């Protein structure tokens, strides 16, 4: 019935105080009271550790499941946003083709920006 580890612990356990001959000089009651064997204490400690580890494992499994759900939701949201960006880029491309005026305006604003940068550069050199 016992596990291999429990049998080993029982076989190597130190004898209890009750198994040892009583000291003739001892008159205190706690000296003659039986003590818990080290294997029983170890087994109780191991049971406590197992219990704590089971609680931790259950908690981690729950957190893992929650994170998976969040991750999947983020994946769906990312795909939705990518599709939206693609639609907007497609619309922008169509709008740019239909509007030839925008190209000249954009070109003019770029040239004006370069001219302003050149003026600032010239002013810096004079100082």
Q: What is the compact description of this entry?
A:
With 127 residues, this protein is mostly helical.
Fill in the keyword field for this structure:
mainly alpha, 79% helix
Report what the structure shows.
The structure is a single chain. This protein is mainly α. It has one domain. Helix content is 79%, strand content 0%. The chain contains 4 helices and no strands. The longest helix has 61 residues. The radius of gyration is 41 Å and the shape is elongated. It starts with a helix and ends with a helix. 0% of the residues are buried. The model has no long low-confidence stretch (mean pLDDT 72).
Work out the helicity level. over 70%
Give the total of domains.
1
Secondary structure category: mainly alpha
Total helix count? Answer: 4
What is the element string, with H for helices and E for strands? Answer: HHHH
Q: How many beta-strand segments?
A: 0
Could you say which overall geometry the principal axes of the C-alpha atoms support? elongated
* Termini separation: 95 Å
* Poorly predicted runs of 5 or more residues: none
Global mean pLDDT: 72
Instruction: Give the DSSP E fraction (strand runs of 2 or more residues).
Output: under 5%
Tell me the radius of gyration: 41 Å
Tell me about the largest β-sheet: none
Region (Disordered): 1-45, 94-127
Biased composition (Basic and acidic residues): 116-127
Biased composition (Polar residues): 23-45
